[in-house]
Amino acid sequence: MNEYVLPDLPYDYGALEPHISGEIMQLHHDKHHRTYVTGANQALAGLEEARRKGDFARIAALERALAFNVSGHILHSLFWQNLSPEGGGRPNGALAGQIDTDFGSFDGFKNQMVRAAGTIMGSGWAALAWDPASARLIVVQIHDHQSETAQGSLPLMVLDAWEHAYYLQYRAEKTQFFEAVWNLWNWDDVSTRYMAARNVNLGLADVAQPRA
């Protein structure tokens, strides 16, 4: 059975300074992300054991653990690739045009994304996602790692709003962190994900129509 593995960061711990400190990046990647990888593999092992023994008394807890930890693993893996020491600025090409179409402007999109991250009650993420059903970009709040997501949507760009992502450096001023990250977005990575996501077909008929 395949197991989840912790990916290497695509840059040094301190490469995103001054916007994200090297200390945060090391703790965030090596401790927090690793914990989700370990938890996901433990949940898989528990489900395998349950099937082997025919004993599903813990099925609800195991399914919750699998969803939480796998989602945390995927979101963090995406987050690392969404960031770059050479990032920032604005996207161009097809992604820029889609953002203008779906959010009115880049500034409108940015403000919605920052606000979505800043108003999450507790822990979670803000994400730019592609919704194949409506063929448009949407911003979603992801509570914890997996709840209250738009089913079928594909995350393209994610903003970590858990305290461990910013507290050592920004303390209670989390909005400053959400603003600082805009100096690091790897728009080439986000654009590549957007172009791939546009080809996804959910096989659903008549679930969305253009506005009159």
How would you explain this protein's 3D organization?
The protein is mostly helical and 212 residues long. It folds into two domains: 21-82, Helix Hairpins, CATH 1.10.287.990; 93-197, minor pseudopilin epsh fold (3-Layer(bab) Sandwich), CATH 3.55.40.20. The chain is built from seven helices and three strands. The mean pLDDT is 96.
CATH superfamily of the largest domain: Iron/manganese superoxide dismutase, C-terminal domain
CATH class of the largest domain: Alpha Beta
Please indicate the count of domains.
2
Number of helices: 7
Oligomer: single chain
Strand line-up of the largest beta sheet:
2-1-3
User: Strand content of the residues, in percent?
Assistant: 5-15%
The class by helix and strand makeup works out as mainly alpha
Distance between the termini: 50 Å
> What is the name of the CATH topology of the largest domain?
minor pseudopilin epsh fold
User: What's the count of strands?
Assistant: 3
CATH architecture call of the largest domain: 3-Layer(bab) Sandwich
Q: Kindly state the mean pLDDT as a whole number?
A: 96
What letter string, H or E per element, gives the SSE order?
HHHHEEEHHH
Fraction of helical residues: 40-55%
